[in-house]
């Protein structure tokens, strides 16, 4: 079985009671779903630099990182086409960020195609990946250990990791 490790960095940017999210299409059925802005780390790249780059690519905003909220790790066997499976391990660093410049705009030619601010109270009504809920829990609870218990409902698939 093929092993796959993916390290990614995401930002929780909350301003005036609203959360910045990016929207992409779910793999397979193309249903739009919201996620935290961020994504995969390049080989040799520092995760801190990853989150700065990814937020700007996906939203048009430049941010400053104001803290590391936590780390979410998921290890699972994922079935793939032709009866093959992948032993996937995703490690996601969730930072808190503050917008310091740029203009809100959609990503061009990337994994997302829309970025927008959403009222915190309305986020639960959005079609979203599990990472959004994990990020919200880390942001609200600020656990000393930098992790929240993993509910089965919040275990997202590798496709969540845009």
Whole-Å distance between the termini? 23 Å
How many alpha or pi helices?
2
Task: Tell me the overall shape.
Answer: globular
- Enumerate the spans where pLDDT stays under 50 for 5 or more consecutive residues: 152-159
Strand order of the largest sheet: 5-1-7-6
The helix fraction, in percent, is 10-25%
The pLDDT mean sits at 91
Order of secondary-structure elements: EEEEEHEEEH
Spatial extent as radius of gyration: 15 Å
What structural category characterises the helix and strand content?
A: alpha+beta
The number of distinct β-strands equals 8
Residue share in β-strands: 35-45%
Quaternary structure of the protein: single chain
User: What composes the largest sheet?
Assistant: 4 strands, mixed
Task: Describe what this molecule looks like in 3D.
This protein is α+β, with helices and mostly antiparallel strands and 162 residues long. The protein has two helices and eight strands. It has helices at 47-59, 130-141; strands at 2-12, 14-15, 18-25, 32-35, 38-40, 61-79, 85-102, 114-119. The strands form two sheets. Strands 5-1-7-6 form a four-stranded mixed β-sheet. Strands 2, 3, 4 and 8 form a four-stranded antiparallel β-sheet that branches. Strand 3 and strand 4 (32-35) form a beta hairpin. The chain is globular. 35% of the residues are buried.
């Amino acid at each position: 079985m093929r092993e796959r490790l993916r390290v990614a960095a995401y930002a929780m940017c909350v301003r005036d009671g609203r959360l910045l999210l990016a929207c992409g299409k779910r793999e397979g059925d193309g249903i739009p779903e919201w996620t935290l802005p961020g994504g995969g780390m390049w080989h040799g790249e520092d995760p801190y630099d990853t989150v700065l780059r990814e937020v700007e690519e996906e939203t048009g905003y430049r941010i400053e990182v104001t803290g590391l909220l936590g780390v979410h790790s998921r290890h699972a066997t994922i079935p793939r086409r032709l009866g093959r499976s992948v032993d996937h391990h995703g490690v996601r660093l969730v930072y808190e960020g503050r917008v310091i410049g740029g203009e809100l705009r959609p990503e061009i030619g990337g994994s997302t195609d829309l970025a927008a601010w959403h009222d915190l109270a309305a986020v639960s009504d959005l079609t979203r990946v599990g990472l959004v809920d994990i990020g919200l829990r880390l942001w609200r609870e600020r656990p000393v250990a930098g992790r929240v218990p993993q509910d089965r409902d919040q275990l997202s698939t590798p496709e969540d990791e845009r």
